[in-house]
Predict the 3D structure of the following.
Amino acid sequence: MTKPDSLQGSLDLLVLKILSRRPGLHGYALMTAIQETSREVLRVEEGSLYPALHRMEEAGWIRAEWIAKDSGRRARAYELTTAGKKQLLAEAARWQAVTSAVNRVLRTV
Amino acid sequence: MSLWSRLVNVIRGDRLIAEIDEELESHIAEAIAHGRDAEEARRAFGGSLRQREASRDIKRMAWLADFLIDLRRAVRAVWRHRALTSAVVGSLALGMGVNTAIFSLGHSLILKSLPVAHSDRLVRVTPGGDFEAWTYPLWEQLQAHQAVLEGVFAWSSRNASFDLSTGGEADFANGLWVSAGFFDVLGVRPILGRTFVAADDRRGGGPNGPVAVVSHRFWQRRFHGAVDVVGATLLIERVPFTVVGVTPPEFFGPQVGSTFDVAIPIGTQPLVLRRDRLDQRTWWWLQVMGRLKSGQTVESAAAGLAPLQPILRDLTRPSGLSAADAANYLESPMTITPAPGGVSELRSRYQRALTVLMAVAGLVLLIACVNVANLMFAHGERRRPDVSLQVALGASRGRLIRQLLAESLVLSVLGAVAGLLMSVWAGGWLVAQLPAVNGAPYVDLSIDWRVLGFTGGVAIAVALLFGTVPAFRATRVDPMQALKQGRGSVGHGPSALDNALLAFQVSLCLVLVVAAGLFVRTFTALTGQDTGVDRERVIVVAVDARHSPHALANRKAVYDRILVAVRALPGVADAAYSSNAPMSNDAWNTVFEPVGPAASPLQDRSVLKNEVSPQWFSTYGIPVIAGRDFSVFDQRSPQAVVIVNETLAKRYFDGDPVGRSIREVGDPGDPQPDLTIVGVARDAVYTSLREGPPATMYLPSAHAFGPISVRAESESPAYLIQAVIAAITDIDGDLKLRAHLLADDFSAAVARERMLAVLAALFGGLALLLAGVGLYGVVSYSVGARRTEIGIRISLGASRTGVVGLIVRRVAALMCVGVAVGVLISLLGAQYVSSLLFGVSAHDPATLAGAILALGSVGLTAAWIPAQRAASIDPTRALRAD
């Protein structure tokens, strides 16, 4: 079993957020999207991304279907489910709460 | 993803892996296309194997997949160690088979509901007071007036062994008298034709003449399942009945333990019995049950019936009751009890016996479990190197334990399957041991989900019981140590746990041996007691004279001619008749009073009575110890005489009653004649083997009816039956006869005790064997493990006897602990079995001592043999081996 790494909470949030804007991305596109929108600050390891995707699929937040790519290979394209949309709101709220709390600590100490 | 798809993914693991691989490969290809270095892109995934594993574990139920792998491996391991497997499966099959058989009998007899719709709403209604059964008038009133229950029905199997023949040799079927609502209220729908309607139950038969409903079994047996059975004519006691319906196969009747062939309306009784007894207010013969309305409780139904009680009683009050009896009759309230399982005589008689047997069989299974655990310990020791290797390669201990438990489960399930097969056979044997209640005993032992659930539950419990501790111990290894030492490793000596298990086994075994002792002694006490009658030489011929053209008053001449003819047969020593035969479940009672000054202040003068012909006492081998036997003149002369038994003589006349007079207490205004006591007969059994001989008075039989008893010149008189029947038939061909050996009645009377004794002895012996083998195995193993130590002791000058003593002493100490615990358990459990015992106390010290002795000698022998072997160890060889 993989140990939950420190980024995991935010990785879910990032993936859900991006998929909510741009449904139908496959794994590689998701990875580059995270990289680009964060202006190269955030990089997701493949070793974390795919287990996370499969886990969220398992949890019913996202669903996947096989699509044909130009290269002739197949890829799995992901999109949000209704449960995923709710999860996104919850994760975002949690993130806001945590970051503002951390910011408060940084300001006061 | 749904639970289903995860389950599916467990099965199609390869396909899943391919899909995960494809997704990852697609990712890598795209990365390369975007200019990443191929090597680096691949490496970014880390170990591809691990990546795949991580994803795969998410996508399916990992534990289930692991479990399936464990099972597959376990099956392979179990197959590889076939010798161990057969030993384990054999002992478990024995234990579980016995448990399943006893459970399924208990389940069918005690727990199972009748196979009808909403059986939970069935209730039994008893008239209250001392009465279990109803008279027909009382039932008629209840049926007419009650509106509390959804419906009520009555039935009886008394006098319901119907002769279906057209004449000549009788052809008996199990009959049932039923009220019109019997099938409807019970909820039995016919599979063919119809059941009864109210008009069928009219006295003397309904508008369609007398009608009958037959059971599925009878339909198959007699009509070979023909569809035109409806409308067919069935001759019941020479009366033509029209068959109107067939009941479904699962319905065996309202009495668990017996089955019925033909059901006919109660109202047809005057036709069948040739006389109308329906209006008799003192003939208690009907069982009554009812169905609660939906949502109605037993309490509210009872409350609803209560106001009806006085009306019913008053309308059906028997005449001639004494004041006390009349008060009892008028006041005792009807009772309603839940009866989803119908009514069963067998149930009340066998409930406790079966519970005891279940406990005993459970103990045997426990002992077998301990033995199997010991086998698994030894097996674990041998497999230590394999396990060490697996640990060294990184297998987690939890996973190894699961693996070993899976093996135990496979063994246990194999044992359960074999046990289930065995239980089918054993269950049949158990049912055959039950006494006949109404025809041959019948119990539906089909394996249903509850029996399967029981066996499955037992299998899992057993696997955990014998598998857990060995699995934990076998996986407690230090890989370095174990690998270094390899196969020749020195095992540990017995641990505290081993000792505790051994002591536990000894204590369980003692309980079983004590139980065996108690039940065997009960059986021998019951069968070996002096019953006062010569049971081995007597044939009893039950006579049914309904079709005889001779009226009761003229029948005595016929009977007397029969006696002359039978006595003339070669091999016959004597013959007589009586109103009741001993041990036939028929007995009369009466109350007498002395004529003249009261000889005894005792108030209770309720005694049993029998009416017997001359030579009845000699036929049964009962000596007349004072005075004289009846003569043919006593039957004719107006001067009434009576013979009493010893108990009556002692209790009321200080042992010297001859010449005194007594009379029976009759109804007021119906004086009974004075009877002169002319003889005293030795005490003899009448109805029950458990209660000593009751005070009994014998009157000369004024009329001839009841069974004819024949005494043979030698024992085992079965060969005479044919000749006796032929001789009787020669005299009167219209008598319907059924002959059996008196010994069979005695044997049927102790059926329960025999079953308990045989099974308890079997289980006790099995337990002794298992405990002996277990002890032997453990001691042998520990001797093997201590070879070096013993070698050193011997080389340092320890004597051989000293070595034997060393080993045997330790076992003896363990056994003492076990025996102490066992004695404690036996004494605690004794309370429960005491009502099943006879002639022996539940705390009987001799039985306890005998059990301890038996167990001690088995245990010490089992320890002595390996100890002897240890003493003959050659010290030089033992020391060189390491």
